[in-house]
Design a protein that fits this description.
The chain has 137 residues and is an alpha+beta fold. The protein is 25% helix and 43% strand.
Length: 137
Amino acid sequence: MAVTLEEPARARLITPEGRERGLPVVLRYSAADPLAIQMTFPSHAALDGVEVTWIFARQLLEDGMSAPTGSGDVHVWPCGRARTVLEFHSHQGLALVQFDKIALRRFLTRSYAVVPAGGEEESMDLDTGLSRLLGGV
């Protein structure tokens, strides 16, 4: 059975007016999907009132804590010495969310204890993954 980490975190949603609004977020990492992390935002933070989960590369978060990175739907960059900003793009618009860098670093450190950096492909069960993808065909 694959190990899954789940860690609550506090974030700050940056409103279009430039104000910050506190936001509870759940960070997840699973050895079953070792290249990705998940961030789940509560329904009250979404325009359509539905909980939202973003899934993106663990390496993107790691890299974005020290230098701007990302393309497409998710961008990450450091904001001073203590914060990291994540920018999420969707068909509904754009969301800017700040995290304390120490909370993200703690989560990443815990994820590397489950699957070390560079060991992601070794931990992937390709046969099981392909079987699920193909529906047992």
